[in-house]
Write a structure and sequence with these properties.
The chain has 416 residues and is of the alpha/beta class. It has 14 helices and 17 strands. It has two domains: 253 residues, UDP-N-acetylmuramoyl-L-alanine:D-glutamate ligase (3-Layer(aba) Sandwich), CATH 3.40.1190; 150 residues, Protein-Tyrosine Phosphatase, Chain A (Alpha-Beta Complex), CATH 3.90.190.20.
Length: 416
């Protein structure tokens, strides 16, 4: 335990298939607001100390040869000189195989979920393998720390066995199932219009969903799960100081995700159609965002998707994934996702979009391939009305907002 004692930094680390960046950014806002001092934040796209951006993910790649979330502890240098350094870190797969985490242990380890992202690439052929690769998040929790986990995902639950028995780790299960009874020290769940944290049947905390507009009224399941992870992580991080926990929760009442962050951005186009920008990249999230969009449709409006999938996956993976989500849309415009993955694609332009279209054709969903993303957005806009919702599944948060705004002419008064 000597190494743990010498590490002064207090860290919340987050891994999983989806939700990581959203959870990290909200936690950064809440923890920094509660502590009233600069906190380090590392996610897929950016590195912040306090409210100041110190580096982008591209800068990380150029400088270190790996992305920002591989060995995220490499950015702890930004906290040099602080007597009580605090960091909120997103940790990706490479932190297990390539370079480690860059520090010894974290106070709170958050494991959100395991879905089909990365499957079919390199050494990852199954979701089970993916879950095992991400189990570092539990192994590296320090003594008397906390494991926050998605209790509705069996593969995540299975990885709890990676927790070191000599560390007296406490667990907090996050669930949306009313029937679930996770074997955990604490449970975060939804009861009526509140998110509650329970110890057995004793309610330790209750957060009104309506007080936090970023939870979207609980209508978007991934966002609701993220809220459970966020509040559970705050509860555990401030376990010994309820005043700081309450202050962090209050700070989130005024929180809204970065419009240029690509995570569930909702705007209104000049013709009145609702526009959703989202970074969905596997069938669960592609389905969830469409189902949420359905709640925003008015009258006889439609859900129109401008979508893409990476071309680095096998044909069977693309076809089977598309078959699971396309029926949730009323019409699709499919563009070509530029390849920026680790493994190069040998596909010709249009191959992956045509596979998605084939799945849509098989299910009778109108689908058009328009390889250029801006032209695809224009095509969707041309067929839309004020009653419709257009979902733009973005490729990158770098310029997607600007590209969408140039097409849809977002109404200025609608911004958060």
């Amino acid at each position: 335990m000597g190494v743990d004692i010498s590490q002064k930094s207090q860290i919340i680390a987050v891994t999983g298939t989806k939700g990581k960046t959203s959870v990290v950014r909200a936690l950064h806002h809440a923890v920094q607001s509660a502590l009233r001092r600069d906190v380090l934040s590392v996610d897929t796209h950016r590195i912040y100390i306090g409210d100041r951006k110190i580096m982008s993910a591209n800068d990380s790649m150029r400088l270190f040869g790996v992305g920002s979330t591989v060995c995220p502890g490499k950015f702890l240098y930004a906290l040099y000189g602080q007597s009580e350094p605090v960091a909120i870190l997103e940790a990706s797969l490479g932190s297990n195989r390539a370079a480690g985490l860059g520090y010894w242990s974290h106070q709170v380890g958050v494991f959100t979920n395991v879905y089909d992202d990365h499957i079919g690439r390199d050494y990852l052929q199954t979701r089970e393998q993916l879950a095992e690769e991400k189990a570092f998040i539990f192994r590296q929790i320090r003594k008397n720390g906390f494991a926050v986990y998605g209790a509705d995902n069996d593969l995540v639950v299975k990885q709890l066995s990676a927790i070191r028995p000599d560390r007296s780790i406490r667990t907090i299960a996050c669930t949306l199932s009313s029937k679930a009874n996770p074997s955990a020290d604490f449970v975060a769940k939804v009861e009526g219009d509140k998110i509650v944290i329970l110890e057995k049947t004793k309610r330790l905390a209750a957060i009104d969903i309506a007080d936090h507009s970023w939870i979207l009224g609980g209508k978007h399941q991934p966002t609701l799960y993220n809220a459970l992870f966020i509040f559970a992580a705050l509860f555990t991080f401030f376990f010994d100081d309820r005043n700081l926990f309450d202050r962090a929760v209050d700070a989130l009442k005024s929180y809204w995700p970065d419009e240029r962050g690509g995570r569930m951005v909702i705007k209104t186009a000049s013709n009145g159609a609702k526009i959703i920008l989202d970074f969905a990249h596997e069938y669960q999230s592609l389905t969830n965002v469409a189902d949420f969009a359905r709640t925003l449709v008015s009258g006889k409006g439609r859900v129109i998707g401008v979508v893409r999938m990476t071309g680095t996956r096998p044909d069977e993976h693309i076809l089977s994934t598309a078959a699971k989500f396309v029926s949730h849309y009323d019409e699709l415009f499919i563009y070509e996702k530029e390849n920026d993955d680790d493994s190069p694609s040998e596909r010709k332009p249009g191959d992956a979009p045509q596979l998605i279209k084939r799945a849509a054709d098989n299910l009778g969903v109108p689908a058009t391939v328009v390889l250029d993303k801006q032209e695809a957005l224009k095509a969707a806009y041309d067929v839309s009305t004020a009653n419709d919702v257009i979902i733009y599944i973005i490729h990158s948060s770098t310029d997607s907002y600007e590209v969408a705004d140039s097409v849809f002419k977002f109404r200025k008064e609608d911004g958060k």
